[in-house]
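Work Package 3 (structural annotation) set out to generate three-dimensional models for the target panel prioritized at the project kickoff. During this period the team completed the workflow that converts sequence records into discrete structure tokens, so that structures can be stored uniformly alongside our sequence database. As a representative example, we reproduce one entry of 407 residues exactly as it appears in the project archive.
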Amino acid sequence: MKILVLNSGSSSQKSALFDLDSGSSPEPTAPLWQAKIEWTGPEAELSVRTSKGASLREKINVSDRQAAIEGMLDTLWKGKHRVIADKSEIEVVGHRVVHGGPRLIQPRRITPEVKSTMKAVGEFAPLHSRSELEGIDIIERVLGTVPQVAVFDTGFHSTLPRPAAQYPGPYEWFELGIRRYGFHGINHQYCAERAAQILRINPESLRIVSCHLGNGCSLAAIHGGQSVDTTMGFTPLEGLMMGTRSGSIDPGILTYFMRKGSITGEKLDETLNRRSGLLGISGVSSDMREVEAAIGEGNERAKLAFEMFVHRLGAGIASMAAALDGVDALVFTAGIGENSTQVRAAACAKLGFMGIKLDTAKNSQSPVDAEISRDDSQVRVLVIRAQEDWAIAKACTRMMEHKANTH
């Protein structure tokens, strides 16, 4: 079954094509084709890579965003990078949807009703929602009536117990849908399953703290394969310090600025989401690699940004462990989690009281899907590659097979 996956963001459009069936390996398989558009001001960069080694990288015109995405999809069945003879070979399209709200939890076949619910929830994450709905519309235009499936990042966290999900504001907030939803759930769930495979332990008995550290960062406390706590909340702004997002701050700061009349809601949103975090503190970049490079050159603000990031990460991991009444495995995943030996080492150094002992040699190699803790560590520490696209494709496969079996 050929499954196209769209991962639509406000500043990037990622896509991949998988060929999976019911007999596919439970471990991730590489896509036949993957592509990405990164929007950078007046220009965008398109990159394409196929399983046969063909690759493409070029600047494209972004005056028409939808045309650019359609051009990216064209490389699937046209030109020297094509991997299928015709677009009709695509049997289902899966979409990563950041916010499903209180109603959209399990993967759903996209219908007019589902799209309407997505639009209503869109105000919780407006930048992502617009991109996701745009992607659905493009597929309808390019591929016609092919089945489309929405897989929700918030769905995995629907198991949060009420004390973790509800904010300590007025009780009525919860009834209005103002609650902690959590995000990065597709990857947190995948990492929990993959950790159990790597450690060869029954997932029902595992207590895992999963650290999704990229431009967006979140932690999840996972017990028996279910999310019991997480750091992101009503929106993806709560929790850890991130690339350009502040993470949790004293809400009194916001009311202070509002009382002074010196900032609008739009300006606050821009400041907290796009001009804070690593970028806001370092003044260098939102990219941890560039922050670490600046530290090597003696940049004190970059050093402060790194130390703040690690301070909040260590505190967050400890709080997740408390929610689990202990932890068996600590997982690092996503861009920073997979690639920054310094972040992993600094975070684990703060957690020695939990019995965490990192193997310095293993950590320095930044292995993929492997353990990096010492043999005498009381907590197993792993690096697991994020596989959101593959997880979405698997969800689509299960849904289509269930439909076929039902009929």
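The first helix runs from residue 65 to 74.
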